[in-house]
Amino acid sequence: MRLIMKKNILAALILSTLAVQAHATAQLNVWEDIKKSSGIKDAVADFEKQYDVKVNVQETPYAQQLEKLRLDGPAGIGPDVLVIPNDQLGGAVVQGLLTPLNLEAKQTEQYTPASINAFKMDNALYGVPKAVAESIFDEISRFAAYAFNKSHAAAYAVVSYQTAYLKYYYPVEFMAALMTSVIDFPNKVAEYILVCRQMGIKILPPDVNCGMYGFSVDNGAIRYGLSAIKSVGRPVIESLVREREENGQYRSLKDFMERNSPQMNKRAVENFIKAGALDCLDGNRRQKMLVYQKISDSISQDKKNSLAGQMSLFDLVSEEDKKEFEIRMPDVEEFGKEELLGYEKEVLGIYLSGHPLENYREMMEKTISAKTSDFQQDEETNLPKVMDGQKVIIGGMITDKTIKYTKNNKVMAFLTVEDLVGTVEVVVFPRDYEKSQQFLNEEGRVFIQGRVSAEDDRASKLILEKIRPFDNMPREIWIQFDNKESYTQQSQELLADLRRSPGDSAVVIYLKDVKAIKKLPVGYHAQIQDSWLNYMYEKYGKTNVKVVERGLKNL
């Protein structure tokens, strides 16, 4: 734990050498964690008596302190002294929320070198330990939370060996069981799906005619679990599977709804359609979405008539004639790709049949230094992979944007950025918002460079420093020729083709026989447009023209 001083104010509560400054302050405001103020009660009383300064201690949860300080600090109504966890120092310093302390050697000598150095950044001291004994106890507690004896370690070794054996010899079954274990955590499922695809394991969509409650093995592939569909409870899934096993597969949308009508409501049917679990039945998803409510109403009315002992005119005709009066699928085309992906995201929590960022995967892998999953707390250690204050680059799509105003009426923003495996919150402070607001649009594909801000018991955040849209990343177009002679023959014609689409993307000539490359001068850089690129494909051969994405270490 640290006792930290807010920017431009006194640390007089613990630093006697600054007492003379404290005399000029009528009151000191101190933020302490919930139910922790009693621990500093005696120190506060002694300080008030010695320096004649009123100390106001306010209990504020650690998780809310930095966010409140960002908003209240500029207005001058925040705390004078701040007690926060160790792992939040870096983020607070980066955001400019703290001012360095100027202490004499005799004041720091009462602490161990390791404890006092832990509060330094760039050779500047931003805090001091709340108590040496408490810091030692914290270290012991962290060790005790994870340490275990030899017998426990041996048991883990056996489990690790067994797990490795199953993953190597039964990879499909292993990954299916693994995803079933995290079926209620879409971000984890998305991460494991990515691993499956890297392993060459195909992920099949949910299917009411062959799917099970959890993830299952289907002809060497993994079938998505039906229970992963939102608003569909376990009893519904179990009833659906039992009905299928007892009376055969479902033949149509109406057949599916009739056989499961007692347990399944309209919302569940709608989510089955959106998830693609009914794609095995006749009709596309748009057609099913247009008729499922009519079918449901028809089934309900038939049941009411049956209970009342009433007969319909349809009861007098043959089964073949009845088909003429059934609700038919309208003649409409399927939803667009973006709509289908949006529905999957809505009811499954992930994109299953594809991803809006799939075409950018190669470029993202070359540029990013952290994934959104790295900001989430590990299930075992409760720690994220990224460290507080660490400088990273992420890439993804802005899915949500919230505007807030500071006390002095400056604009800042909180973004939700999604990549191929999950989401992370990005904080944009007023100064950076002014510079970058033209890129901060929902659905925007961007790379963001910033510093990690870690928080207790919550996912880490990213403090934006730089931003760059995907379409503004450096690209090269490579054009291949069999040999120097063929290039020489076509060089003038090639240069003319490049002048048709001037831009800022570099052009590289590759000679296949000698594996030599030549970068053309800036005057021949091209703008890579679809129409022009298709022209180049047709003229020089698609195998001889390639667009290469270039990653950046710094934006």
Number of strands: 19
Q: What's the overall average pLDDT, rounded?
A: 82
Span from first to last CA? 35 Å
Record the strand order, biggest sheet. Answer: 3-2-4-1-7
Q: Number of DSSP helices?
A: 20
Short description:
39% of the residues lie in helices and 20% in strands.
Structure report:
By secondary structure, the protein is α/β, with parallel strands linked by helices. The chain has four domains: 140 residues, D-Maltodextrin-Binding Protein, domain 2 (3-Layer(aba) Sandwich), CATH 3.40.190; 190 residues, no CATH class; 114 residues, OB fold (Dihydrolipoamide Acetyltransferase, E2P) (Beta Barrel), CATH 2.40.50; 76 residues, no CATH class. It is built from 20 helices and 19 strands. A five-stranded mixed β-sheet has the order 3-2-4-1-7, with helices on one face. A five-stranded mixed β-barrel has the order 11-12-13-15-14. The N terminus is likely disordered.
Write a concise keyword list for the protein shown above.
555 residues; alpha/beta; D-Maltodextrin-Binding Protein, domain 2; OB fold (Dihydrolipoamide Acetyltransferase, E2P); 5-stranded mixed β-sheet; 20% strand; globular; disordered N terminus
